[in-house]
From TrEMBL:
Domain of life: Bacteria
Keyword Lipid biosynthesis in annotation: yes
Name this polypeptide is given: Diacylglycerol O-acyltransferase
Membership in a protein family: Belongs to the long-chain O-acyltransferase family.
Keyword match Cell membrane: no
GO MF annotations in UniProt: acyltransferase activity
Lineage, highest ranks first: Bacteria, Bacillati, Actinomycetota, Actinomycetes, Mycobacteriales
Domain O-acyltransferase WSD1 C-terminal: 322-464
Catalyzed chemical reaction(s): an acyl-CoA + a 1,2-diacyl-sn-glycerol = a triacyl-sn-glycerol + CoA
Pathway field: Glycerolipid metabolism; triacylglycerol biosynthesis; Lipid metabolism
Species of the source: Rhodococcus chondri
Keyword entries, A-Z: Acyltransferase, Glycerol metabolism, Lipid biosynthesis, Lipid metabolism, Transferase
Pfam families found in the cross-reference section: WS_DGAT_C, WS_DGAT_cat
Enzyme nomenclature, EC number: 2.3.1.20
Length: 469
């Protein structure tokens, strides 16, 4: 089915540059399954479940002369083996080698002539483990019409759920003239789009993109001041570094109970401490008033076990919407508990004022939803001018019980959120099965010391735990 891109989809599509590829991604680590998770099994599973994410078999067609936003069309030449790929590390592959591979894959834009996603089965990890790296363009995943593919692949039992067989028959791809006629008909029906069309016809793509983003930007008038100067904001290159942190969820819960704050407050306080010591390691001057401003998309949801057939799907039902707020992380404050107090008060003030940024509402997300949540959170964050914050931090809670992919147990899952223009770092985290998994996507040139920051996350958490003893 041919469907016109929404204004927000189009903004992600047009805003992408070679230095800022706009895809969200995830890195799943899997234990060896009986018989092994091989490429053929993965290919079979993905092919069976593509019907649940139909946009993953659609590509983007642009309209001649920019007369209208692009459309999604069925890819009549869809080749699943192009999208589901196989890679390997020299055995026994280390985690550092895996992260280097992920950094290279993050750096590469997706092929715009094909459906905008790729998946890599990475074999050869030490201990017989394998990894699944998936990346999808942000224009592809909106949380409503299209979910992230990982959400439909994982099961709550080692035995994969049965899915009905589907005979996919792609629709005829519209001709260029058909797209032009349809665009002109829409212009007649909605003349208000004429200004954007005129700009596009004149080749003023930047102006058109600015207008699409402004639709979101009007929702963020509540914070007009620019973010403080920070080494986190710099011209970024085409290359990335990727680093991860794994931490048990229990200490975050203890701090939540001790101080009566949210777990998200604890996460932000831990990151504030890590950023403080990272800045000091670089010799940056800090005063007690020094802050780093973070954009924090927040998902308001309820998660429980599905009582439907099989009882093994995870239901995520939002209580309203995905929203975002700007928080000044007090990196100049030397006391860890005071840092947490400042952040908790900021969160309380936000909750009282309920200044929510409108986003696509997720009606019901069944399955392993964190990657979809990160995608929606990224959409919300881009509604703010990037001059208003130093970095983006997305937090998407996941299920607290094991999941499986074709019988292989999911051991860990590390998210990847894109870098925005002139922002050298983005941090995404997901909780799963008793742990919190941080994924740090950093510019290779501006953040050569990203691994220093990951080690400081552990130290910051210990500092906060010790402060209350």
């Amino acid at each position: 089915m041919t469907r016109r891109m929404t204004t927000q989809d189009a903004s992600f599509y047009y805003l992408e540059t070679s230095n800022t590829p706009m895809h969200i991604a995830s890195l799943a680590i899997l234990e060896p399954a009986e018989g092994g998770l091989d490429y053929e099994n993965l290919l079979r599973l993905v092919e069976q479940r593509l019907a649940e994410v139909p946009r993953y078999r659609q590509k983007v067609r642009e309209v001649a002369w920019g007369l209208a936003r692009p459309v999604w069309v069925d890819d009549r030449d869809f080749d699943i083996t192009y999208h589901v790929r196989r890679s390997a590390l020299p055995q026994p592959g280390s985690d550092d080698q895996l992260h280097d591979l992920v950094a290279r894959l993050i750096s590469r834009p997706l092929d715009r002539t094909r459906p905008l996603w790729e998946m890599y089965l990475v074999e050869g990890l030490a201990g017989g483990r394998c990894a699944l790296f998936t990346k999808s363009h942000s224009a592809l995943v909106d949380g409503v019409q299209s979910l992230e593919i990982g959400q439909v692949l994982f099961d709550s039992t080692p035995v994969p759920r049965e899915v009905p067989e589907e005979l996919w028959m792609p629709e005829q791809e519209p001709s260029g003239s058909t797209l032009v006629v349809g665009a002109l008909a829409e212009l007649v029906a909605r003349p208000g789009e004429g200004i954007a069309v005129a700009r596009n016809a004149l080749g003023d793509v930047a102006a058109t993109v600015t207008e699409t983003v402004d639709v979101l930007g009007r929702l963020a008038r509540t914070a007009a001041q620019s973010a403080p100067d920070s080494p986190l904001n710099a011209h970024i290159s085409r290359s990335r570094r990727y680093a991860v942190v794994r931490s048990e969820l229990t200490p975050y819960r203890k701090l939540h109970a001790r101080y009566g704050c949210t777990i998200n407050d604890v996460v932000l306080a831990v990151l504030a401490g890590a950023l403080r010591y990272w800045l000091l390691s670089r010799g940056e001057p800090l005063t007690e008033a020094t802050t780093v401003r973070a954009m924090v998309p927040v998902s308001v949801y309820v998660q429980d076990a599905d009582s439907g057939e099989g009882g093994d799907a995870i239901q995520v039902r939002p209580q309203g919407e995905v929203s975002s707020f700007l928080v000044d992380l007090p990196v100049g404050e030397p006391n860890a508990v005071v840092r947490l107090s400042h952040i908790a008060h900021a969160g309380e003030a936000y909750a009282r004022q309920r200044r929510r940024v409108a986003a696509q509402t997720m009606i019901k997300l069944s399955g392993f939803a964190p990657a979809t949540m990160h995608a929606v959170g990224t959409r919300v964050a881009t509604g703010f001018s990037q001059r208003m914050f130093n970095l983006m931090i997305t937090n998407a809670p996941g299920p607290q019980h094991p999941l499986y992919l074709a019988g292989a147990r999911l051991l860990a899952v590390y998210p990847v959120s894109p870098l925005l223009k002139n922002q050298a770092l983005s941090i995404a985290l997901t909780s799963y099965d008793g742990n919190i998994y941080y994924g740090l996507n950093a510019d290779r040139d501006a953040m050569p010391d990203v691994n220093v920051l990951t080690s400081l996350i552990h130290e910051s958490l210990e500092e906060l735990l010790d402060a209350g003893r």
